[in-house]
Specification:
This protein is α+β, with helices and mostly antiparallel strands and 243 residues long. The protein has one domain. Helices cover 24% and strands 30% of the residues. It contains five helices and twelve strands. Strands 3, 5, 6, 7, 8, 11 and 12 form a seven-stranded mixed sheet that branches. Strand 5 and strand 6 form a beta hairpin. The N terminus is likely disordered.
Length: 243
């Protein structure tokens, strides 16, 4: 009886071992079906942090720029539109002045960043142009000849506040020497024959109906860097003419 039981156990054990071995053979010999891959390599898209673009904007700002520039009224007689420009760039800032306003004898205030210890100064330059006035209607030849002054440093007040310079009457009339023929041809090209014929009586640039006036006043802001004065910002103020 014991021998029969042993035979049965051996048979069962043999069956279990054989079945296990057979299953391993099936798994190891299962054919692998290869899937055709496309002929291009799919690009890897990096994961960008949420604050990446904000940080990039901060890093690409020019550290030489000021935080802001402010124009404020000082002259008791003439007004000026008070403005404050922030987010400054390296490009010149252009402004059109109102007819009754003046940028002369006004304040330019510089606002550097808290950690900016540089010394600053402001220089002023003006440009004249010629106009032809026909009892109301007028033609400004702002794309023709000009007198352009040298750059002159303006007065510094307390802190980083600067007072723009007044321009004398004699400077208002400065202009390159021109002939009546040159004036006629310039007006003819820009204003037509009727206005050009009207300007024939101009012997010089300041003979009626011709007149010369300030058409632009510019300012450049300089910072002292490593012992040298460098321009960091420029402001162009365009002056209305003909009245």
């Amino acid at each position: 009886m014991k021998r029969k039981t042993i035979y049965v156990c051996v048979a069962v054990l043999t069956f279990i071992v054989g079945a296990t071995f057979a299953s391993l053979l099936v798994v190891n010999h299962t054919p692998i079906v290869e899937v055709a891959q496309p002929n291009y390599i799919e690009p890897i898209i990096p994961v960008v942090p949420v604050n990446h673009f904000c940080q990039r904007e901060i890093l690409t700002k020019n550290p030489r720029n000021l935080a802001a520039i402010e124009i404020k009224r000082f002259d008791p007689e003439f007004e000026v539109e008070e403005i404050k420009v922030e987010d400054l760039s390296d490009k010149p800032m252009d402004f059109d002045l109102d007819l009754s306003h003046s940028i002369e004898n006004q304040i330019i205030a510089l606002h550097p960043y808290p950690n900016d210890s540089r010394e600053f100064k402001v220089e002023q330059q003006f440009e004249t142009s010629m106009s032809v006035s026909e009892e109301g209607p007028h033609l400004d030849l702002t794309d023709w000849k000009h007198y352009i002054s040298d750059w002159q440093e303006i007065k510094r007040l307390e802190g980083n506040r600067f007072l723009t310079s007044k321009i004398s009457e004699s400077d208002y009339e400065r202009f390159p020497k021109v002939t009546s023929k040159e004036i006629y041809e310039a007006v003819l090209k820009r204003g037509g024959k009727r206005l050009a014929d009207y300007a024939r009586s101009c012997k010089t640039s300041n003979d009626a109906p011709c007149l010369v006036g300030i058409s632009r006043i510019s300012f450049r802001i300089k910072a002292k860097e490593n012992g040298k004065w460098n321009v960091i910002h420029k402001i162009n103020v365009f002056i209305p003419m003909g009245c």
